[in-house]
Specification:
heterotrimer; A mainly alpha (about 350); B alpha/beta (about 500); C mainly alpha (about 350); A: about 350 residues; mainly alpha; ABC transporter involved in vitamin B12 uptake, BtuC; two-stranded antiparallel ribbon; 15 helices; disordered N terminus; C: about 350 residues; 13 helices; about 0% strand
């Protein structure tokens, strides 16, 4: 059986077939070059070179590895945010989720004297719940992700603030020996035996691999891309759009909660203002890594590369004694520039 | 009726999108006080020509003259200043603003003294314009909730408010009921008699011949000819459009016997949409669903596909009762739906042909959630061959394919699901004559394979030619049932528009 | 033509929609009364103490002024979260001028503040309108960039009460009807609201804002200047933030680089959303937003008076935004169901 093309359409057959092929190799190289991830990797290399010029510390592998621990939470959350943004959504509440989970863990352990193991389990359950809350409002109530997560950005951190106030857990006033268990704190000081690779980085790499496989090699991942490209069409093709969206927001919650526990472990203390403003870094990492803010495009590899890029930048700025607020300003500028470049290359690519 | 001098001429218009020629050397002219039909197959360039004149796109070459003087139309605003108005296929309205403002947006009347918006004048002038068209709309009503026909009226009132001397209408009748079309034509005649020049695009040649004074035929971006309506026949026009002898409308062959009922629908009801819907479709059968727009046919289809919730009623597939809450459920039971809105059909443009095709069957092609790309490629290649899809490489983005090939990719997606029931909603709407026959041939072949087909159509000839049985809906209820041999145009129309026939 | 029942249905939809808008504003008032009621239940003399009324009143100017701008932004389907940083920037720079140039004319200072805000707003507008960067991303970025500028310019030092001219502080203390009652700053806010109303209702530019939010494609094709209008709403918002920076100094007597305006965007967006502005764009009313500001100001003062620590503020804002958006969505959905059966 066949459908003949109508003449009018056949004369407009793919113009791409008519273009003179300048040599397939050149085209393939061009194809790679305008991929955003390529640019990210170039920037990464440049940042590394620049960093090592500024300071000899940069060439010290141990120093760099240790530095990754300071921001590993951003990386972990960025992995989840990649899914969110590819599906043409956004989640502004990630840093607030991080803080709330940490705060709750502190309150559970200290105020309610729960064993740390149970506390951690409950913390993860809470993380999933917080993420699902976002997800349900977005899928069931059909509210826009921006508005919902802007509200939960406030609500979650506000809840953390209500829980622990301006104080912390353990409270400032308490004596020095009331602390989290030894095995829980200082995760950044745990290394793979015989190396200086810190445990948080290992966790990050494992997560990156697992989530990378999930995104690129499974049906679920393909569904995420489809939803981000054209949600209505995906739904008509039988993609379970509501469940997928709920799943990625729940996953985002879990990752944010994990980040919260890691931060508490690193700093040995839970406060309501942990990671304040870090949603900016997370989104920047994802966008800088080549993920299209409008959805439908992006890779875990890109996010990882961009995260490392941000690490290098932060390290460089830290070493150059740039103040925290100025560092934030730089990241903000980076975000805007990243989108500009992305818009540009998108136009070239199509 | 026509003056000596044309009010608008185009000379040598060239238009291209991204390297693809869409219009070549168009010399078009239109006189004041005439209704000029513009016909051609899909992709012939009709819409593009109008958009060039209306400043939506700027032609790559060529000139436009207004009353003999060369003019530039770089944007829609310039067109408005030149008293050119474009009525779009899908009305462009602002749902939260009222009718009056929709009419006057961008050109609201200002009061002289304080230089502020004069709402009172805006309302009164809107009422005047609407009255002069014989349209009963309240200028203060918000546009949200108005029917498409009413929204088009608002757009036309907008055109009038700017004293448009040239009215360009792009498929205005596509979504209108026959009685709404009549009203529209009355208004068009009114405007023509006042001296407005009107260009009218429609795929329905009977309409063109009814309302137009002259016709221009486009084919493949070229202007083939310009004729006076009284001096040319429909067949000649079709020949010019298609460029080859016309093929007769395809008639579905008689099937000897049909199989068991594949789809059984009983007592389906949804408040404000439809009620008491009971019918079945047997394997190999094509059931045509006729009725006026708004009768509820698409809603029934949506209910069967899971995009509209039903309040009561049962659906059975192969005798088994099924619950269909969302498209995923429908697909699981072998029901596919091809909506009339092509955008919903939805190609994922930046994604590859393969990925587009396999979207609905991923779970069958994967193991435990693991994608098997080799299986995907195989399946895609099978359908590329089956449907003769022209492409360079199945991994290329589907947006690089031509329109016709893109349609085939979408079709492949559905066929891959090996459906039992196909719900086709206006399958040949907006499709040119040449392709219509092909679509009908394909439908017959699919039916011959045992698929049960529900064909919703507003075109009587199509309903009468293709259906084994006809169900007519009116205002949410079934108003008539006919077998192929007992159906006549009159009886179908009567059921669709007039009296209820006795059930059973 | 369409059947009588169709027309009737549509007429009903319009009526209900109009009634809903009124009802919406009424709903805010009802909520307001409820909040007041609950507060009075615990503190019967809540409204009798002039200091409470003054506190509520003093909240209004800051919120209202900026909310007018944010409302316009949201109507155009955009968002601006950098408002807190813009406010702080204008406040700190003008504060520094007052500090370093004693006797500097406060009206001139206010003007400079407004211009500075306008400049920052223009950057936002340029990135969004012409470089096509999504509003959330742009303003998320500039939120940090502008805050960084605040620190750099001020070298981390705050502006103390003794740097702020007394005349400026008087704006928040005195009013035309005598010292205790309506302070000047409230009048300024009322004037701004009035100007916003006039702009949105009686100028083409104002109507363009609604058009762009209602149907961006249609707006462009109908000749509405989309980019210019989009740019303008962010410029206006920036300018209003500049004014708010001055009002902040007047009300609080200090400007602190690390505190001023932090989290302010949430309060403002809460007020705008509570005030009935559609988060999907296309509609919103000055009266509604004004009432929203009143409501939020009242909630703030009520919480303080009831002894609920300020630590609850953030949670309350988040909850309020969520509630308002959800309720609106539910109402809209039920409305559609009732009139069209969708």
């Amino acid at each position: 059986m066949s459908i003949d093309e109508t003449r009018s359409q056949s004369t407009m057959v793919d113009s791409s077939l008519d273009q003179p092929m300048e040599g397939p190799k050149k085209k393939r190289i061009m194809n790679v070059v305008v991929q955003p991830e390529f640019i990210t990797v170039i920037l990464l290399i440049l940042a590394f070179i620049g960093g090592s010029i500024i300071s000899p510390y940069f060439l010290d592998l141990d120093f760099l590895l240790n530095y990754t621990s300071l921001f590993i939470e951003v990386g972990i959350m960025a992995l989840g945010m990649t899914f969110i943004i590819i599906s043409a959504n956004i989640d502004l509440s990630v840093a607030s989720t991080l803080a709330l989970v940490g705060a709750v863990a502190g309150v559970l352990f200290f105020d309610l004297s729960m064993p740390m193991g149970i506390t951690i389990v409950l913390a993860f359950l809470l993380s999933a719940a917080l993420g699902s809350f976002n997800g349900l409002l977005i899928t069931r109530m059909k509210l826009p992700a921006l508005a919902v997560t802007l509200a939960t950005l406030a609500l979650y951190r506000g809840a953390a603030q209500v829980l622990v106030g301006d104080d912390s857990r353990p409270k400032l006033a308490w004596s020095r020996d009331i602390v989290f268990p030894d095995w829980f704190v200082g995760i950044h000081r745990v290394y793979i035996p015989g190396t200086s690779i810190p445990l948080p980085l290992v966790l990050f790499v494992i997560l990156a691999i697992v989530l990378g496989i999930l995104l690129h090699k499974t049906t679920f991942g393909r569904w995420v891309y489809a939803i981000g490209t054209n949600e209505e069409a995906a739904r008509y093709a039988g993609v379970p759009t509501q469940r997928v969206k709920l799943a990625i927001f729940t996953m985002m919650g879990l990752l944010s909660g994990l980040a919260g526990l890691i931060m508490v472990s690193r700093l040995s203390v839970a406060r309501y203002d942990h990671a304040r403003g870090w949603e900016l870094d997370v989104i920047t990492a994802v966008v800088l890594g080549g993920t299209d803010i409008y959805g439908g495009r992006g890779t875990i590899f890109g996010t990882v590369a961009a995260f490392l890029l941000i690490i290098f930048l932060r390290t460089g700025m830290g070493v150059a004694n740039v103040k925290a607020e100025s560092q934030l300003a730089v990241i903000g500028t980076l975000l805007i520039v990243a989108i500009l470049v992305s818009n540009l290359t998108k136009r070239i690519r199509t | 009726m026509t003056d000596n001098l044309p009010v608008l001429t185009t000379h040598g218009i060239y238009m291209a999108f991204g390297g693809v020629n869409v219009l070549k050397d168009i010399d078009f002219e239109i006189y004041p006080g005439e209704i000029h039909g513009l016909v051609g197959e899909n992709g012939a360039g009709k819409s593009t020509l109008l958009k060039n004149i209306a400043g939506v796109h700027v032609p790559k070459a060529g000139e436009i003259r207004l009353n003999g003087k060369v003019v530039q139309v770089p944007n829609p605003h310039a067109a408005t200043d030149l008293q050119i108005a474009l009525i779009h296929q899908e009305p462009l309205t602002f749902p939260d603003l009222d009718v009056a403002e929709n009419i006057f947006i961008g050109r609201q009347p200002m009061s002289s003294g304080l230089s502020r918006l004069d709402w009172a004048t805006m309302y009164s002038r809107s009422a005047e314009i609407l009255n002069s068209l014989g349209v009963k709309l309240d200028p203060r009503a918000k546009v949200r909730g108005l029917s498409i026909a009413d929204q088009q009226m608002v757009e036309m009132a907008g055109a009038l408010s700017q004293d448009a001397k040239i009215l360009l209408m792009d498929e205005p009748t596509a979504a209108l009921t026959p009685s709404e079309v009549k009203d529209l034509f009355a208004i068009m005649r009114l405007l023509r008699d006042r001296g407005t020049a009107i260009v009218f695009i429609s795929h329905r040649l009977e309409e063109v011949f009814e309302i137009c004074d002259r016709i221009t035929v486009l084919r493949d971006g070229e202007l083939i000819d310009q004729r006076i309506v009284g001096e040319v026949s429909v067949d000649e026009i079709i020949q010019m459009m298609v460029g080859r002898p016309l093929s007769t409308l395809f008639e579905k062959g008689d099937t000897e016997e049909f199989g068991e009922p594949v789809l059984e629908v009983e007592g389906l009801m949804r408040t404000l949409k439809f009620e008491n819907i009971t019918f079945n479709i047997r394997a190999g059968e094509i059931v045509g669903m006729a009725g006026l727009i708004g009768a509820g046919r698409t809603d029934v289809a949506r209910a069967l596909f899971g995009t509209l919730e039903i309040d009561s009623g049962t659906i059975r597939i192969d005798g088994q009762r099924v619950e269909i809450g969302r498209p995923r459920d429908a697909l699981k039971h072998g029901i596919i739906y091809v909506p009339e809105d092509r955008k919903q059909n939805g190609l994922l443009m930046p994604m590859s042909v393969i990925k587009n095709m396999t979207l609905a069957v991923l779970e069958r092609l994967s193991r435990n959630g693991w994608l098997r790309e080799s299986l995907e490629e195989e399946a895609a290649q099978e359908y590329v061959k089956k449907l003769n899809i022209v492409l360079r490489d199945p991994s290329q983005p589907v947006r690089e394919l031509s329109g016709g090939n893109q349609q085939k990719v979408v079709l492949s997606r559905w066929l891959m699901t090996k459906p039992k029931v196909m719900l086709l909603d206006e399958p040949t709407r907006g499709i040119d004559i040449g392709a219509k026959a092909e679509v009908h041939r394909l439908m017959s072949e699919l039916a011959a394979q045992g698929i049960a087909i529900l064909m919703i159509s507003s075109e009587l000839p199509e309903i009468l030619a293709m259906s084994d049985r006809i169900i007519v809906m009116r205002e949410g209820r079934i108003s008539g049932r006919f077998d192929k041999d007992e159906a006549t145009a009159e009886s179908v129309i009567a059921a669709a528009a007039g009296q209820f026939l006795q059930e059973g | 033509m369409a059947t009588t029942s169709d027309t009737l249905q549509r007429q009903r939809s319009s009526d209900i929609a109009v009634r809903l808008a009124r009802f919406r504003e009424l709903g805010i008032v009802v909520f307001l009364i409820a909040v007041l009621g609950m507060t009075i239940a615990f503190q019967p003399d809540f409204l009798l103490k002039p200091i409470n009324i003054r506190s509520i009143l003093l909240w209004i100017p800051l919120l209202t002024v900026v909310a007018m701008g944010e409302m316009m932004v949201i109507i155009t389907r955009g968002i601006d979260v950098s408002i807190g940083s813009m406010l702080a920037f204008a406040g700190i720079v003008v504060g520094m001028i007052f500090r370093d140039v004693p006797g500097f004319n406060i009206y001139l200072g206010a003007l400079i503040g407004i211009l500075l805000g306008a400049l920052l707003g223009a950057v936002n507008g340029g990135l969004i309108a012409w470089l096509k960067i999504p509003p959330i991303i742009t303003t998320l970025g500039t939120l940090s960039v502008y805050r960084g500028l605040v620190f750099i310019v001020s070298e981390g030092r705050q502006i103390d009460p003794n740097h702020v001219p007394t005349a400026l502080i008087r704006w928040s203390q005195r009013g035309p009807f005598g010292i205790q009652w309506v302070p000047y700053v409230v009048l300024i806010a009322v004037v701004v609201a009035f100007l916003a109303y006039a702009f949105l209702r009686y100028t083409k530019g104002g109507r363009s804002i609604y058009a762009i939010g209602g149907n961006p494609e249609a707006a462009r094709l109908r000749g509405v200047p989309v980019e210019t209008t989009t740019f303008s709403v962010y410029l206006i918002t920036g300018a209003l933030c500049g004014l708010a920076g001055i009002l902040y100094a007047s009300r609080f007597g200090f400007v602190n680089p690390g505190e001023t305006g932090v989290g302010f965007e949430l309060t403002v967006i809460a007020a705008v959303v509570v005030g009935g502005t559609n988060v999907f764009g296309g509609s919103g009313s000055v009266l509604g937003v004004f009432l929203g500001c009143l409501l939020l100001g009242t909630i703030n003062v009520a919480l303080a008076v009831l002894g609920v620590a300020s630590t609850w503020q953030l949670a309350v804002y988040g909850f309020v935004i969520l509630l308002a958006v959800t309720v609106d969505a539910v109402i809209r959905r039920e409305l559609r169901r009732a009139t069209t059966g969708e």
